[in-house]
From TrEMBL, chain A:
One of its GO terms (molecular function) is DNA binding. This is Helix-turn-helix transcriptional regulator. InterPro entries: Cro/C1-type_HTH, Lambda_DNA-bd_dom_sf. Keywords: DNA-binding. PANTHER family: TRACRIPTIONAL REGULATORY PROTEIN-RELATED-RELATED, TRANSCRIPTIONAL REGULATOR, PBSX FAMILY. Residues 8-62 form the HTH cro/C1-type domain. It comes from Psychrobacillus vulpis.
TrEMBL record, chain B:
The keyword Membrane applies. Keywords: Membrane, Transmembrane, Transmembrane helix. This is Uncharacterized protein. The chain crosses the membrane at residues 7-27, 39-57, 82-106, 112-131. The lineage of its organism: Bacteria, Bacillati, Bacillota, Bacilli, Bacillales.
Length: 70, 135
């Protein structure tokens, strides 16, 4: 079983961006940001691309697959 | 959403409430023989008042949260899941209820009872949808 992990929270906090500000800029709800940051929700490809563009980082720096050891 | 579309939606909703109220006056009138048009004013005040409360709450919310949308892709996905699950619960739940009632010896259901049952279902599905939207 693989899981998508992201570094959005770390990058966002490093840049001093609040969740509300990010939600306004990307036109999504604050709850969605919380869910993505806590790896509870995988964003659509469209939103993932928007996040990459917004934070200005390469995709592999933002999202990566974590494989569970069986 | 475009401002024009938004205004059209609000006008249709408020207009439908007022038309519904007028239909109510007509139905009562056709039963009793007197059409009580004094009820028209409370209908209009109620519809517009409710709309004002909604408008005030949405403006207050916008002021508090900024220009954040109420619905996004995650909310839509959650709603889809919720409605697909609630469909099966209502479908099989109603079937099970009918079987239980039949086993208990109930052979006919009053239309009024069906209306009450539907109202309860709408109420719970509505509350559930509201909670799902907030998640």
């Amino acid at each position: 079983m693989t899981k998508v992990i992201n570094h959005i929270k770390e990058i966002r906090l490093k840049r001093g961006i609040t969740q509300i500000q990010m939600a306004e800029d990307l036109q999504i709800t604050r709850q969605t940001i919380t869910a993505i940051e806590n790896n509870k929700y995988n964003p659509s490809l469209e939103l993932a691309l928007k996040l990459i563009q917004y934070l200005g980082v390469p995709i592999e720096e933002l999202f990566y697959l974590e494989e569970d050891e069986v | 959403m475009k401002k024009r579309t938004e205004i059209i939606i609000y006008a249709v909703v408020v207009g439908s409430i007022i038309i519904g109220g007028l239909l109510g006056i007509y139905i009562i009138g056709s039963e009793d023989g007197t059409y009580n048009f004094e009820l028209f004013l409370p209908i209009v005040i109620g519809a517009l008042g409710g709309f004002m409360v909604f408008l005030f709450l949405s403006k207050w919310r916008q002021k508090r949260n900024g220009n954040v949308p109420e619905v996004d892709e995650r909310t839509i996905t959650l709603m889809k899941k919720y409605f697909s699950i609630s469909l099966y619960i209502v479908l099989f739940g109603s079937g099970a209820l009918l079987l239980v009632l039949f086993a208990m010896g109930v052979e006919s259901i009053e239309t009024g009872m069906l209306i009450v049952y539907m109202m309860i279902i709408y109420f719970f599905v509505g509350i559930g949808a509201f909670v799902t939207k907030q998640l």
